[in-house]
Amino acid sequence: MKTKELPRFPTIREEARFGNTLSEHELRLMLKRGELPGFYYGESQKYFKINHEQLVELLNERSNTKREAS
Predict the structure, then answer these.
(1) 20 to 30 A Cα–Cα from 43, which one of 1, 27, 60, 68?
(2) Which residues contact 30 (CB under 8 A, 6 or more apart)?
(3) In a domain, 63, yes or no
(4) Burial of 7 (0-12, 13-18, 19+ CB in 10 A)
(5) Eight-state DSSP code of residue 11
C-alpha cells in the first residue's frame, strides 16, 4: 500500500493529515495570528498553502528556544 506524499506546499488539511507537525486546529490558529509561513491563492485569495519546509524550521527554532530557556 502506497502512502500519500506530502506536497511541498500543502493545504492546512493536508499538512495536518500527512505532515506530522500540528493539528488542523493549531495550524488554523497560527494562520489567524499571522505566524504560519505560506501564501494565499485563488481568485478571491481565500485559500492558503503552507510552506512546509519553513514551518518545520519554525517549529525547530521554537523547540530549541524553549530548551535553552529551561
Answers:
(1) 27
(2) 22, 36
(3) yes
(4) middle
(5) B
Q: What are phi and psi of 10, to 5 degrees?
A: -75, 160
Q: What is the pTM of this model?
A: 0.80
Residue pLDDT, tens place only, 5-33: 667 899 999 999 988 889 999 999 999 99
Which cell is 37 given?
A: 509561513
CB-CB contact of 39 with 33 (8 Å): no
pLDDT at 51: 95
Place of cell 485569495: 45
Angstrom distance (rounded) from CA 1 to CA 55:
28
Domain that holds residue 63: 12-69
With a cut of 60, say whether residue 2 has pLDDT above it: no
